[in-house]
Design goal:
452 residues; alpha/beta; Adenylosuccinate Synthetase, Chain A, domain 1; Adenylosuccinate Synthetase, subunit A, domain 2; ten-stranded mixed β-sheet; purine biosynthesis; GTP-binding; magnesium; metal-binding; ligase
Length: 452
């Protein structure tokens, strides 16, 4: 039997080259910045990412699909993004769609065309797509609608963009990836026919024209080929070379499939773990985690919403905040800021700082309430309920603060905020024990107060 001996690698100048502290310091001191939604989505992450992308080299999407919707306003022009990272507006920034994203190719090219007409130029040289990302086919979208119809009154209010069925295909290991499309086309064709036949058996009413679809995807393969690469290797190489990487989470923590208000959630991990699995980045490369919090709370679709307002104040927030979904055009439900929700998502995500958006929407209110605790059966609870039955029955304990009753839209310095508005920000910081780094007071990228 061969003997096994412990041996150390050869030393160079008295230091092991494989375990050089200098080498590891070089790799780990360039941390990735992450931007995550801290509520039920629509917090204004796109605007924050657009701002931070101005000082970044690479902006990445790590999960979700075109069920997400981010709006960025630049020089009065409104750009809507669903699959593209919001940072793609920055001409000096490379945009990466990571392996954790599910991609509807017709939707991607439609999105590119629409934003190109609005003035987005040069994206061809700045967009990189992972070969490991899964493809959303049109039949996935049909299935999404059929599954919702089957649930009847128990429907979840999905966007019907095919996101759930595609992640289901991925989990059952019969999904099809971008790399499959660009490989041996006969193998792609076999996989496509098999997947389509499986869904046709489950849903006989499914409308499928397989030959037309295969021809169409042959065209997409040629279009997308120049943009596709191994994004894991690309990102690690660029980080090692000192490039600044920004990650944009789609959806938000309360829509996370594990930690959100299940089953009224999306089908991916839109909390911090999705950054690791959706891009191939280890936790030790993650630095700042910026949680984006709307100054009140909104959500689209069904599910419990403890601080929801069904009165004139709720209507005011909806109208002043233009609370209509970018993707679905559905009116968003509105309510007071729920700090129990934000504290819970901060526990999961480890926010190092916050961006408070849409503070200006509260400008006309004489008093403002903030949810600070939940009671169940008359007793305070110290946890966030996983049961939707429990969450539907919690009683919210509020803190009431005076409003400022004047406009904040032109404020650009923390010291010039009305005292009551500053107090509102401090109340949030004190409750969460997390600093507010940025405050949004308008639509444009210039409507940001740096609170540092």
């Amino acid at each position: 039997m061969a003997s096994i001996t412990n041996s150390k690698p050869a030393e160079v100048n008295g230091e092991c080259p494989c375990y050089s502290s200098k080498r590891y310091k070089m790799e780990n001191n360039n941390k990735v910045t992450v931007v995550l939604g801290a509520q039920w989505g629509d917090e204004g992450k796109g605007k924050v990412v657009d701002l931070l992308a101005m000082n970044s080299d690479i902006v990445c999407r790590c999960q979700g699909g075109n069920n997400a919707g981010h709006t960025v306003v630049v020089d009065g022009k409104e750009f809507d993004f669903h699959l593209l990272p919001s940072g793609i507006i920055n001409t000096k920034c490379t945009s990466v769609i990571g392996n954790g994203v599910v991609i509807h190719l017709p939707g991607l090219f439609e999105e590119l065309k629409k934003n190109e007409l609005k003035g987005m130029k040069g994206w061809e040289k700045r967009l990189i797509i992972s070969d490991r990302a899964h493809i959303v086919f049109d039949f996935h979208q049909q299935v999404d609608g059929l599954q919702e119809a089957e649930k009847g009154k128990n429907s979840l209010g999905t966007t019907k963009k095919g996101i759930g069925p595609t992640y289901s295909s991925k989990a059952t290991r019969n999904g099809i990836r971008i790399g499959d499309l660009l490989g041996d086309y006969s193998i792609f064709e076999d996989k496509f026919r098999t997947l389509a036949a499986n869904y046709k058996r489950m849903f006989p009413s499914l409308e499928l024209d397989i030959e037309t679809e295969l021809a169409r995807y042959g065209d997409y393969a040629a279009k997308i080929r120049p943009m596709v690469r191994d994004t894991v290797l690309y990102l690690h190489t660029e980080i090692k070379n000192g490039k600044k990487v920004l990650v944009e989470g789609a959806n938000a923590a309360m829509l996370d499939i594990d930690f959100g208000t299940y089953p009224y959630v999306t089908s991916s991990n839109c909390s911090i773990g999705g950054v690791c699995t959706g891009l191939g980045l280890p936790p030790n490369l993650i630095g700042d985690v910026l949680g984006v919090v709307k100054a009140y709370t909104t959500r689209v679709g069904d599910g419990p919403f403890p601080t929801e307002l069904h009165d004139e104040t709720g209507e005011l927030l909806q109208s002043r905040g233009h609370e209509v979904g970018v993707t679905t055009r559905r009116v968003r439900r509105c309510g007071w800021l729920d700090l129990v929700v934000v504290r819970y998502t901060a526990t999961v995500n480890g926010y190092t700082s916050l961006c408070l958006t849409k503070l200006d929407i509260l400008d006309t209110l004489k008093e403002i309430k903030v949810g600070v605790a939940y009671k169940l059966n008359g007793k305070k609870i110290d946890y966030f309920p996983s049961s939707m039955a429990e969450l539907s029955n919690v009683e919210v304990e509020y803190m009431t603060l005076p409003g400022w009753a004047c406009s904040t839209e032109d404020v650009r310095e923390m010291s010039k905020l009305p005292e009551a508005a500053s107090n509102y920000v401090r109340t949030i910081e004190d409750f969460l024990q997390i600093p507010v780094k940025y405050i949004g007071v308008g639509q444009g990228r210039e409507s940001i107060i740096n609170a540092n």
